[in-house]
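Supplementary notes for students who missed Thursday's class. We covered one full example, reproduced here. Read the sequence, then the structure, then the short commentary at the end.
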Amino acid sequence: MTGLQASGKSTVAPLLASRLGPPAATLDGDVFFNGVVAGAEVMTPEPSAEAIRQLELRYAATALVAQHYADNGFDHVVSDIVLGDHVERWFAKLRAVETYLVVLTPTVESIVERELGRGGHNSYRDWQDDGSPADGVRALQAGLEQIPRRGLWLDTTGQTPEQTVDVILADLEKARW
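Structure (token representation):
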């Protein structure tokens, strides 16, 4: 499952996994992002080579964990911000697994409202170019447009996480990668 920061993927993924199993497991890519405690480099519109390396390490790690669980009979839901050609490369790492892609695409306004409602820092600050958080969301959204139009793309604006899971399960075949 992919989408932008504050799109709901980290909330929806465990709910979806709980409805798929048992057995089912879930993993948020932030586990590996936050695992780099010294020398972490964040993605920006012009990322450093090290930021790209860390991003690719994170993607490789989530694919390994997903494969491990799948090899042991689990449905597995991964949630992360995976954009552009990284999506195809991520799926290419999986073997003998039924794969599905769900892209959460709530409106810019709802993402900003949720992000600011979390308090703390603005995850879009590196993407704002001295503009508003909405400008930052729109800048990062360009990466969504680079994903092949496969899978299930959902505007989840105004939906509860439970409603989003209902929609995914009702249209799961459309999500097949």
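Commentary. The chain has a mean pLDDT of 91. The beta strands are 2-3, 24-28, 75-79, 102-104, 152-154. If anything here is unclear, bring it to office hours.
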